Amino acid sequence: MSAPDPAPAAAPAAALDEGATPTGGAKTASSPRWFRSPHLWVSTTYFGEGFPYTVVTSMAEILFKELGASLQVIGLTSLLHLPWNFKFLWGPFLDSHESKRRWLLACELAIVAVLATIALSLTWAGNNLMPLAAGFLVLALLSATHDIAIDGYYLEALDDAEQSRFVGYRAAAYRLAMLAVGGPLLAICARLGWTTGLLLTAAVMAALALAHAFILPKVEARGRPWFALARGLLGWRALTCLVLAASLVALEALWDVGSKLRLALEPLATSLPWLAQLGVGAWAGIILLVALLALLTWLPRLRRRLDAARERGELSDYAHSFVSFLDQPKIGVTIAFVLLFRTGESFLQKMRWPFFSDIVHLPLEVYGIASGTIGVLASFAATIIGGRLIARDGLRRWIWPFVLAQNVLNLLYMGVAMLPDPTVLAGAGAVASDPSSWLAWAPLTVIIACEHAGAGLGTAVFMVYLMRTCAPGHRAGHMAIVTALMSVGFTLAGVLSGYLAAAMGFATYFGFTFLATLPSMALVFFIPHLDGREP
Q1: What is the 3-class SS of 30-80, one letter each residue?
Q2: Domain span at residue 383?
Q3: pLDDT (tens digit, 9 = 90+) per residue, 265-308?
Q4: What is the mean pLDDT of residues 83-107?
Q5: Rounded CA gap, 436 and 248, in Å?
Q6: 183 with 34, same domain?
Q7: In this structure, are 362 and 499 located in the same domain?
Q8: Domains in the chain: how many in total?
Q9: Is the same domain home to 497 and 362?
Q10: Final residue before a domain boundary, out of 183, 198, 224
Q11: Cα separation of 354 and 372, whole Å?
Q12: Which of 22, 46, 327, 371 has the fewest CB atoms within 10 Å, measured from its CB?
């Protein structure tokens, strides 16, 4: 890739966070106190990332149901996930304006205000769902932007070894936030009321914002101020996009264009039923992939235009973010690897419970303990250990052992499916005496835990590699792009999984989940960045 222009050796005082340290400043002498340790702020920031995400994507639908919304309206709450699918569209702005630390803090304060507003609106809005829906939409946009800021800050504040070392802490803190919202917080809402529960949610985010104001090291030079972004968003290009978006909304409202389009595409959906299962988020990722491939064919011309714009002082940071991503070495191989890496995992995950339920007759409570507790703990431990080993010895040393651990363990499920009676893995007497005891199903629990541990090692490899694809100066924007691309292969595999399992049978299907990993493993021989980020 053509490296972006280096930052000036001495940035103007106004462009620096006061007390800022160089990139990787989390290790510098300017922040020696224990509360500035990455162990602490990595955990709190990623807890803060998962917390509002789960409020939007899980709690909202429960709240709408409690307020008497129809099933159709509850189904529409899935659209609140769209800001995460489309966040690559505004990720570059976080690289070019202010600093990721300031974006992070500003988003957290705004999230507190919106959560408090939603909570208080329940006292006067009654069963009017429109203010509530608007509030959750704003919350989703802020939370997605908060995600971009956190990922970008992580890449700015830590060097390559530290980024690898703390990848497991990120995953554990994020999952802990999801459990906190789905468990204790939801119970509080049920017992004390939604207003109290949402105000408590706002208080948690306020505490995180206050802590982050003190514990986050200042490691990054500030970009252009926020008012410059506001001025740019009011330019003619942005206004044109808004007019087009408003026109689409008007067409849908006046002539029901969406329904007519669905009717026109119904024959295609009938012949390819899996297409009907693709949500808007999946199509957003597919559109991004197609757009990047189209831009890739025009890359030399785009590079010349950017160079000319730089000479005139008219270089667009937004355009440069996408072009610089495509201008990396072996970018085609990188994109293919990102798309394919999680396909085998997705094929397996979607059909794991149907297999255990219909074929093995594993009780749900046993599966919950084996997968949701023991398996999750095994995944956390494996991701943390994997990250630390990569930090110590490098990605090249561990990529093959960890990738094989993730993919070969899929064959354990094929072995179980090939047994004439899978329940023989538990003693017949033990199952008969207490079929709901997870101890009676200990061998299957071990298999599930091993597969989760392998997936955790694969996660460590994949997250480290994704971070290596993000160029200095465009880290937030590039991370938003690769995470959007990552979801494309995962989603398509999940959509196809049921049709393939029904056609193949579970034994053959689980063998296929391993075969689906072979293309990504073959690409390991060709991908860049295994020894660190290549210029």
Answers
A1: CCCCHHHCHHHHHHHHHHHHHHHHHHHHHHHHHHHHHCCCCHHHHHHHHHH
A2: 334-523
A3: 556 556 666 555 566 556 666 777 777 777 777 777 777 777 77
A4: 91
A5: 53
A6: yes
A7: yes
A8: 2
A9: yes
A10: 224
A11: 15
A12: 22
Read off the amino acid at residue 479.
Answer: M
The CATH code of the domain that includes 451 is 1.20.1250.20
For the chain, percent of residues with pLDDT exceeding 70: 78
Q: Which residues pair with 258 in a beta bridge?
A: none
Nearest CA-CA partner of 53 in 194, 174, 183, 171:
174
Domain boundary among 224, 248, 269: 224
Structural tokens at position 510: 């689980």
Contacts of 232 (CB under 8 A, 6+ apart): 238
pLDDT, residue 19, reads: 52
Which residue, chain included where needed, has tokens 């160079």?
307
Where do we find the tokens 């660190």? 532
Q: How far apart are CA 448 and CA 284, in angstroms?
A: 33
Could you read off the pLDDT of 153-188 as tens digits, one per residue?
A: 999 999 989 999 999 999 999 989 998 998 899 899
In a domain, 369, yes or no: yes
Go through 387-411 and write b for each residue having 16 or more CB atoms within 10 A of its CB, e for each that does not.
bbbbbeebbeebbeebbebbbebbe
| Largest interatomic CA distance in the chain | 81
416 lies in some domain: yes
Alpha-carbon dihedral sign for residues 349, 352, 353, 355:
positive
User: Does the pLDDT at position 203 exceed 90?
Assistant: yes
Taking each continuous run of H as one helix and of E as one strand, the counts in the chain are: 28, 0
216 and 350 share a domain?
no
Q: CA–CA separation, 222 vs 456, rounded Å? A: 35
Instruction: Indicate if the alpha-carbon torsion angle 114, 119, 122, 124 is positive or negative.
Output: negative
Decide: 70 and 77 in contact? Cβ < 8 Å: no
The Cα–Cα gap between 305 and 477 comes to 20
- Higher per-residue confidence, 459 vs 289: 459
Measured CA to CA, the distance from residue 222 to residue 291 in angstroms comes to: 30
Is residue 254 situated within a structural domain? no
Question: Are both 42 and 161 inside the same structural domain?
Answer: yes
Strand partners, 97: 224
Spell out the residues 6+ positions from residue 9 whose beta carbon is closer than 8 angstroms to its own.
Answer: none
**298 in a domain, yes or no?**
no
| Per-residue pLDDT tens over the stretch 311-332 | 676 667 778 888 888 888 899 9
